[in-house]
Structure formats: C-alpha cells, structure tokens
Amino acid sequence: MIFPPVQEQLDRIVSNTVEVISEEELAAKIENSRETGKPLRVKLGADPSRPDLHLGHSVVLRKLREFQDLGHEAVLIIGDFTAMIGDPSGKSKTRPQLSAEEAKANGETYFEQASKILDPEKTTICYNSEWLGKMTFDDVIRLSSHYTVARMLERDDFEKRYRSCEPISIHEFLYPLAQGMDSVHLRNDIELGGTDQKFNLLVGRDLQREYGIAPQVCITMPLLEGTFGQEKMSKSLGNAICFNDAPEDSYGKILSIPDNLIETYFRLLLPSPEKPPELFAELVRRNPREAKRTLAREIVALYHGRSEALKAEEHFDRVFVHKKAPEAIEEFSFAGPSIPLVDLLVELEAVPSKSEARRLIKQKAVQIDEEKITDMAFEVALGDAPKIIRAGKRKFFKVLGKKDSE
User: What does pTM read for this prediction?
Assistant: First the structure.
C-alpha cells in the first residue's frame, strides 16, 4: 500500500492534539510503515459505562478516522471487562462497577454510533473480555509485579484521594493494568485517548516494553467543554449533545454554547477538509450568531443529513425566533373533563416527577396555548379542541379529551 509522505501524515496527525509521546517515535513508525507497506495499528479504548455517545467522544473518534483516511488500521476496543472494574479517571471517588450483562448491553450500541464517524469497513472491533476474561489469578499476580504502588500514586486522581484520606480500592489499581494488557494483546503501534486517559495510555506503553513489544506512541486529545462552557461534556452533567439527539435538539443546544467555544467546536468537531479555519474565525469575530448557526447546521448535517439540518434550523426559527409552536407536535388524549397540570406534565413525560413539574411552573416555564401558567393547582380543561402545552424551551405537546368511543 502507498501511504502519504511522512511529513504530510505527521502534520495531519499532530493537529489538534494535546500531547504526542513521542513525536520522534511517531515519525519513525510512519517511516517504517511507508517502507514496509504495512499500516499502523491504532487503538482506541471505549468505555461502555454509558450507552450514548456525545460530541465529546467524537473528538478522539475523528482523530481515529484521520488515521483511517491515511491508510492505517483502526481498532476499537469495547472495554466490557474493564467496565466491571470501573475507571476512576478524573473522579474523586470510585466509579460504580458494571455487571457483565450491563457492560455488554451498553457496548452493543457503541460501534453503531461510532460508525457515524469511523469507516465501519475499515474498523476492527474487539471486546477485551475476550483475553482479560481468560487470565488466571497467577497471570494477574505476574501482571501486578510490573507496577509499584508508588507509580500508581503518580496518577493525579489517586494522589488527591490518598492525600485527602479518601478510600482507594485495590481493584482500581487493576484498571490501568488491565487496559495496558489490551495494548500487550493487540501489539498496537499507537493509542489514542483524552487527556484524562494519559496515565492509562502510559501504563500500556510501559507494559508493552515489559513484555518485549515495541512501545506504543500515546496521543492525547483535548476534552471538549459542554454546552455550559465550564466543565467537560458529560451526559450526567446535563451539558452533552449526543449523537442520537433529535436534530432540532442538537441544533438548539449548539446555539446555546458560549461564544468563546465556537472556534473550538468548529476546529474539533468538523472534518478537516471541509473547514476553512481562517474564514470561519473571521465570521466568528464579525457575526458570532451567524457563525454559531453555520456550526449548528454543519454538525447536525454530519449526524443526521443535510435535509434534517435544514429542517432543524427551520424548527428553531419558528419556535424560538418567531415564537410559534412547531408544525408537527405529538398528540395525546386523556379521559375526563379536566386534569391537574402537574399530573399532566408527568403523564406526558415532560418532567420526571411532580416536584419537577411544580418547579417548572414556578419558573414560569409552562405555557398553554401561549399563555404562561403559574398556578400550581391549575386544571387543564379537556375537550375536542386541542390545547398546545409547552414545557420548558423545547418540549411541545398537543392535548385533547378522549371521545366516548375511545
């Protein structure tokens, strides 16, 4: 196979990364790949603790796609076995462990979602239970002998917890060792990860060396800030834009990001060949609102198609610019002459609980036919004429009474 020149590959691979350990080794591996015609094996570990991928995950997935475009082999590891240990990366306490069934179930959707970025025909997918599950206790003892407690405590989150006298379970030390064994088993040339995975990546590099394998190059990618602009994107923090979000939801969330994140999102979330950075930077300075709309259209188009992106923009303009209800609203019917608004919001699954419904009403975030309702005891009259219920900014429902024949 004929690969692009070394410097061309280096320039593309190193762009938008935080750290490459080491760039000299990367150049040597690329050179050897060109000479032998053998693609580099690039590994990315996927944590199946949550089944939904978000744009934060796309940063490292897009880098893996760049390696594919350069002709190299992408290996996606679903960490179903390591998820049963629980990676404490960036956590101040132990992350809950998953059962084998939970890890497997969450991992099943990962590849399908990741294929929105990766070329599925050129991606090898593995579950690390295939080799870690076969290790004996003797194997684990021998593996543990390659690392000291002092080395483990060099990891920031372990050190902080140790100094603050917070408990660290022995099994947590096994997580980076188990992830390192993935690299030993695969004999991969490169491993990708977020900056919060640097320690784990370096353990894999060390273990490969211990087992007589050429050590992997470690490439860390920036952690994408979520829609609030303060912490990294995370579904549990409510600041995530997920691959499977409805197009109009994704569009609206992107428009909600702080202006200082526009260029970062543009640089990290869109394919390199499709973006002229200098022109977009000028647009951000001149008209950040229009830049954000361009960004939203392009990102939604990536995951849902161009036509859905245009529909999402039309939906946003109709609902949030012109203050009108969406053209298509799901319809619900209820028996009886009326229903308490608090109960209705729960029945519609607009909120998870009655207390949340009351909070929404108190915030003046509930409307019926464009009239704000602030009365907690308000009863919604049911009849043949539908009523449009708006809960929060984006949730709309059409409600009417059931006919006698229903």
Answer: 0.81
- For residue 170, give every residue at least 6 positions away whose Cβ sits within 8 Å of its Cβ, in sequence order, or none: none
Q: Which residues of 8-35 are buried (b: 16+ CB within 10 A; e: fewer)?
A: ebbebbeebbeebbeeebbbebbeebbe
**pLDDT at position 165, please?**
87
User: In this structure, are residues 39 and 184 in contact, taking their beta carbons and an 8 Å threshold?
Assistant: no
Long-range contact set of residues 284-290: C-beta below 8 Å, sequence gap at least 24: 284/259, 288/259, 288/262
- Would you say 223 and 195 are in contact if contact means Cβ atoms under 8 Å apart? yes
How far, in Å, CA of 327 to CA of 324, rounded?
9
Fold classification of 331-401 (topology level): 3.10.290
Residues of the chain with CATH 1.10.240.10: 245-321
Residue 103: both structure tokens together: 């890890």
One-letter amino acid identity for 174?
L
- Amino acid at the residue 40: L
Kindly report the length of the chain.
406
Percent of residues, the chain, with pLDDT higher than 70: 94
Q: For 18-27, 93-102, 148-157, 370-379, which range has the lowest pLDDT when averaged over its residues?
A: 93-102
In a 13 Å sphere around the CA of 347, the CA atoms on its Cβ side amount to 16
Answer CATH for 6-221 from 1.20.950.20, 3.60.9.10, 1.10.10.10, 3.40.50.620: 3.40.50.620
